[in-house]
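User: Structure please.
Assistant: Input sequence and predicted structure:
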Amino acid sequence: MRNNNLFEIYKLIKIAFCVFLYTAQASGQSVPKTDLPVIQPTLPTLISPSMDNFIIPTSNYSTSSGNTYQQQQNKRIMNEVDQHEKLRQETLYSVKSDIDELRSEIHYDLPSKSNIEGTAAYKILFDKMLTLDVNNFSVKGVNFDIENAYFNNKADKSQFDQIIHHTGEFLTAKMKELKYDQNSNSAKNYILFQFFSEEMKLGKQTHLPFKYDFEDYMGVKDFSKIFVSKLISTGSGQCHSLPLLYLILAEEIGAEAYLSLSPNHSYIRFPDDRGKWYNIELTNGMFSTESYISQSGYIKSEALQNKIYMENLSKKELLSKHFSDLAEGYIHKFGYDEFAQSVIDKALELYPNSISANMINANLATVRVKYVVQQLGINISDAKERERILNYPKAVELLKEMQKQYAVIDNLGYENMPPEEYQKWLQSMKGEKQREENKAIEKQFKGAIIKSTKQLKN
């Protein structure tokens, strides 16, 4: 799975912003106390001319109609005062006008990518996905459409559908050969587990187990490396494509199974016929325990309380994940813009606690702030330069929104898992303890399948 945040950019802005707050407080500027860092935006203040130099003496002032020298002097001074005040007002108005004019030239929305070939495929698909029944949609159909949009609608849907259909027939026929109960959810999920993890023969057909592809497994260089279509064509995939193909095939043969998440990772959960839940780790073709999944060291108690990890994604939450996948593909291919924001807004509407959608949302907020600051020509690493942002209330609002979004992620219990740590965790799945646990769980589960098969025969 990909870690889709812009922490380097965010850290720079966050540090600069915190220093700026400290500077504002130290200099006596008013910073309201709220849950979020808030800057009170103000316009530059012009210093009024001192009136001490324009005192009008009255001791020698005459009320006669004659114009004495003192009267003329006082009149001159009064005229100067009027001129100073007029100049002050004109200058203030001019500065405000200049700032208003500059503000009007600042773009606070990210530039659209709609002029780039291929973006139309995403927008058409987004509109199509908005019409889906959130509780009843085809995982196969939505996943194909998302991958096809990345290829600018040049993939062959009929060929993909045919492969899934034939695989479903292969699995059903194998269940009959093994005399598994065709109505048993345990048996259906076990045949799927075997299909992913073992060599399977049926007549002259032979299916080899899927392998984990450690090369560019996050799709950084080649985004299509995480696709189900790539998994089908090469026989190797990773923790994004393997669970999705499992769900597609489960849908094809009528098995109940769910996608579940852990840091940088996804896996499968399903209930047996008695309601007991099992975890399948497709990256190594093993059953796994809850304790093993939590051993990564990056699952905080807050994350479990907020149910962002180790939970069954409902159909609605799974659709949210598909919207996040759509946005990720678009961003990887074209970059960040307001269309990507619309897609993520929908993902968050369906699943507010989605960690993937919230992280992409934070990225969008960070890129937007960076874009605006660049337009303003503000060097946020320079203390004096930072003060200029106070002249732009909307820029300040965007900065606050960015920090608010990162606070959401922190409050959900997310902790960044570095790629090297994730790879270590993946490698640990091949350890002796994990293999022994898998054997024990599989033996118990297989025993229940055999018992069910014997009862079916009788």
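Residues 31 and 40 are 6 Å apart (CA to CA).
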